[in-house]
Amino acid sequence: MAGEAMYYGTGRRKNATARVRLVPGTGKVTVNGRDAKEYFGRQQLVDYATTPFKVTDTEGHFDVIARANGGGISGQAGALRHGIARALLTAGEYRAELKKAGYLTRDSRMVERKKYGLKKARKRPQFSKR
Q1: Between β-strands 29-31 and 16-24, what pairing exists: parallel, antiparallel or unpaired?
Q2: What is the pLDDT along the chain (130 residues), one digit of tens a residue?
């Protein structure tokens, strides 16, 4: 294991952050010390997070070790996807495919703040004529 390559990437989505390490391996995904399927609770989110590997034909080439915090499970899965894509950039010549698939763009959509006088960010109180 001495001198084995390791690639790093940080991904963000909503309020979630994922610090990702890619180690050459068999495709095992570990998040916060737990298996990804167990951590996210559904396979759908794991598949979503590992899509950069499908695009670059590197499925089963790397093990993913990630620390995710902040936000909810969906945001963390998005952050993990972003982090994996960024780590793959340092791992090889995958920029073209990743960029074409849109995995290198930080999804800037955030929750809009609540404004005073309103019930939520945009919902107004009920209007009464009389």
Answers
A1: unpaired
A2: 555 789 999 999 999 999 999 999 998 999 999 999 999 999 999 999 999 999 999 989 999 999 999 999 999 999 999 999 999 998 888 899 999 999 999 999 999 999 999 999 999 999 999 8
